[in-house]
Amino acid sequence: MKRYETFDHRADIGIRGYGKSVEEAFENGAKAMFSVMVDINDVKPVDKEDIDCEAPDLETLFVEWLNNLLSNAHLNGMLFCSFKVEINANKLRGSAWGERLEKHTNHLMTEVKAATYSMLKVVKEDDGYIAQCIVDV
Q1: Residue 48 C-beta-side C-alpha neighbours within 13 Å
Q2: For the domain 4-136, what is the CATH superfamily, name and number?
Q3: Domain coordinates of the chain in residue numbers?
Q4: Angle 8-10-12 (CA atoms, 0-180°, nearest 5)?
């Protein structure tokens, strides 16, 4: 099973995370989003940031997770490459590892402004979960 992918969507970009669990799909969705901005294989998991959020349903929780990651990255000048998520009911406790943005300024690709509700879905398939949405670039 592939872990994540991006797909074209008019002027924006779609992201899709796959996982054996919904948590793994959220983690891989975050990797997909940051892979739009930078080659995450070049980012080292040096610094850790904790992210907590909650929402009324899994779909909204996915968008909240991604937007909280983006806010944290912008506020702290970070790029993230590795993620860990725990979901209990409608609450998410997550961690993101990465390094300072200034180490990658020559390698930045596309800026992601926000995760959106367009094409949003979190679904269970036969072989695991898919979490997807469109990100505004």
Answers
A1: 5
A2: Archease domain (3.55.10.10)
A3: 4-136
A4: 70
